[in-house]
Amino acid sequence: MRPARALIDLEALRHNYRLARRLGGGRALAVVKADAYGHGALRCAAALQDEADGFAVACIEEALALREAGIARPILLLEGFFDADELALLVRHDLWTVVHAPWQVEALERTPLSRPLDVWLKLDSGMHRVGLDPADYRDAWQRLRALPHVGAMVKMSHFARADELDSTRTAEQLACFEAVAGDLPGESSLSNSPALLGWPSACAEWARPGLMLYGVSPFTQAHEAAAALRPVMTLESRVIAVRDLAAGEPVGYGARFVTQAPTRIGVVAMGYADGYPQFAAAGTPVAIDGRTGCLAGRVSMDMLTVDLTDHPQAGIGSRVELWGAQVPATAVVAHSQTSSYRLLCAVKRVPLQYRG
Ligand SMILES: *Cc1c(COP(=O)(O)O)cnc(C)c1O
Questions:
Q1: Ligand 1 pocket check for 31: Cβ under 6 Å
Q2: H/E stretch holding 151
Q3: How far apart are the C-alpha atoms of 187 and 78, rounded to whole Å?
Q4: Which CATH superfamily is domain 10-227 in?
Q5: Whole-model pTM?
Q6: 33-70 pLDDT, tens per residue?
Q7: Where are the domains of the chain?
Q8: CB atoms within 10 A of CB 185
Q9: Distance 268 CA to ligand 1 centre (A)
């Protein structure tokens, strides 16, 4: 069997969820969209089922998969519904929906439902992706509130730059939200992971942590609150071949890497088809049998190469951690042209093995 695999520590996931909830000071929807950021949504949701206040996914397809797997907790659709035809299904499966656009308000007005649907009404407070314009928000709120088939209404918005701790933008978005929606009745939800960790002033009744649940910091710099997170995924494989090369020898496609000195190269069964970043630079950290090492040469589809010169004890069969307990995912990101979010979501082909 190919030795590449991703170990998923569900106890760490629960630890991170508890931390997120504690930081938020209220309730928290565990964001498990995109297959729980590559960690397996069904297993992750099942592991959190007893303590999560609810879950958030991108769309109804992701929500129905959770319902079919027996997840009974509330589930919020972050992109809302795409078509008025979906509304009856949302009610039948007891889903909550974001409403972010005027056409969705109209669709709800036109579509009577057998049971009240809970709505999270989203304000565009400055991210300019989805959300109602500040000028339209209160009118939409009043119109939905008047509908007998709308149940609880939560006011929400989303931050564009909460990971930039020195930016004034998050405070400006917060002020916009307060000015537009502050005096409307009902609960609020603002914080994603960087806001939970870095902007306590944004705390409201509901938080929506995603990335931090998986134990990865949203910040590029060291951060005290983020240091308490525990990595959930360990991506690992083994050395499957070793080459002793003289100075001046190329390694891999395109000869992008040429040895500067006699070098012992280890070939690891892990490549970009597994989700390892294709453009991770030479020098990207790995752990080889528990000791710090680094990439040497270009990542290919199924294999990558590491420098074993300073690891004389290592050889065929040595365990290589690409990220996880020893190598922070953020350290890999710092050497690759990617983000922590995409790093995790990209993981595929490798079997996911759960513990905890
Ligand atoms: C994905 C998403 C989140 C979670 O964001 P993280 O930065 O991963 O914590 C929260 N809210 C909305 C609307 C999202 O789309």
A1: yes
A2: strand 150-156
A3: 17
A4: Alanine racemase (3.20.20.10)
A5: 0.97
A6: 999 999 999 999 999 999 999 999 999 999 999 999 99
A7: 10-227, 233-355
A8: 8
A9: 33
